[in-house]
Design a protein that fits this description.
By secondary structure, this protein is mostly helical. It has two domains: 74 residues, no CATH class; 67 residues, Arc Repressor Mutant, subunit A, CATH 1.10.10.10. Helix content is 71%, strand content 0%.
């Protein structure tokens, strides 16, 4: 391991959590703060100096984080000023329904147990079959099916399933859920 990599490892071990919090306080978002910290580490250690103390490296990383944050904000403000000139006068489509549905889904996921949530994410977000979910988590397929069933029942209390909107238009039919069996599924 070279001297600069020792300094990097020592900095992350000793002050990494504090520097991540510093990034969060600058950005107001944990993910953006962590990205800001990582980017600063890359910039600082791309050209390391041999005689840095831990305090000097930390100060340089903090200053780099602050400069990057300010540069990003300046760029976004400049873009915001130019945006009205770039946009067309046509009205944009309304996507508020999708945003609200996404919020409801995130809220519903928060009501699930960790295993239920993992099963739902693997099955419907990563699009794994039940066997793949079972293999990834280390459960039987029956247990995965049970977790999915319980999770979907719990989530339906928070999020209206898409077929309810369709049922209002044509009562007695479920549309768009599962495979067609050739029979109408009653509500």
């Amino acid at each position: 391991m070279t001297e600069w990599s020792d300094q990097l490892a020592q900095l992350v071990r000793a002050r990494g959590a504090e520097l991540s919090r510093y990034g969060y306080l600058l950005c107001g978002d944990m993910t953006e703060g962590a990205d800001l910290f990582q980017e600063a580490l890359v910039r600082v250690f791309a050209r390391p100096r041999r005689s840095w103390s831990l305090g000097e490296v930390e100060g340089y990383v903090r200053r780099t984080m602050l400069n990057d944050f300010l540069d990003q904000r300046r760029r976004s403000q400049r873009f915001a000023r130019l945006l009205p000139r770039l946009s067309s006068p046509e009205a944009a489509p309304d996507h508020s329904g999708g945003v609200l549905r996404r919020h409801d889904v995130v809220e519903a996921l928060g009501t699930l147990s960790p295993r239920q949530r993992a099963c739902v994410v693997l099955r419907y977000y990563e699009d794994l079959p039940v066997a793949g979910v079972a293999e990834r988590i280390g459960l039987s397929q029956g247990a995965v099916k049970r977790y999915l069933s319980e999770a979907l029942a719990r989530m339906s209390a928070v999020v209206d399933p898409p077929w309810r909107e369709t049922e209002e238009a044509s009562p007695g039919q479920r549309v768009g859920v599962g495979r067609s069996t050739g029979k109408e599924n009653a509500r």
